[in-house]
Design brief:
The chain is an alpha+beta fold. The protein contains four helices and eleven strands.
Length: 209
Amino acid sequence: MRKLLQRLRATDPDPELTRVSIDTAREVIEETQALYLATFKSVLEDYSDQPSVPEALLLDETGQPAVLGASPFPARVDLLLQPEDGPNEMHHIASAQELEHPPLLASPAQGQNLVLNPFTWDCCEVVTPLVEPAVQEVLEPWFVDHFRTHAAEGDLTGAIHYASEVVSLEGLTAFTLDLGTAPTQALMDLIQALWAKGAGTVILRKEVA
């Protein structure tokens, strides 16, 4: 990671925007995922002696998949604690560290731009000028595919945990993801699908409160 950051700083011609290859952008995304996964595994280890279920499906009182807030999608609980003397507790595992780098621009082909700001794997906001219905058409099948359990390291599901509702404001459409233990390729698949739909520009950043 240190070599990657040194390379980015050494080749930065503009303090506001650094042009990089899509391979370098992917490296940054991989490092961001790795930082979160290290924290996730560390927290699971801390609770290993307690009754708990990592990456549990969020269920309602009837045992059916539940949603969080206004999201139309089901969700996973990072860690569901199951104390013997009380009700279950949902524990969110937040990123302990954010990869610092200048805003990056990768343009692998004409009409394909990725603006990559610092973000965390559990709180990634995706912003694009693509209209809301078109974004929904991309997000829904992508979510269904990557919310399922995939082959992953150890006992991890390799799945995303949450996607927010899609909102539009001032010509931009945005939604927020908790990418859970999903691999880097899951996010790259989403970016490619948005480009294929005509997004032109996809912006990744930490969610703005």
